[in-house]
Design brief:
This protein has two helices and no strands. By secondary structure, the chain is mainly α. It has one domain. InterPro entries: DUF465, DUF465_sf.
């Protein structure tokens, strides 16, 4: 059964995924920003899996 918290985490994960994709496709991607976004996404994924 999916909780509201889990749904919110999955939504945030999807938003980060889109932001990462947008940044990658820019002419000069900001590698520091990308690294930060990827870390956030990984933390969210780990929290989702632990539920």
């Amino acid at each position: 059964m999916q909780t509201t918290h889990q749904t919110a985490l999955e939504t945030k994960h999807a938003v980060l995924d889109r932001r990462i994709a947008e940044e990658i496709h820019r002419p000069l991607p900001d590698t520091a920003l990308l690294a930060g976004l990827k870390k956030q996404k990984l933390r969210l994924k780990e929290e989702i899996v632990s539920l």
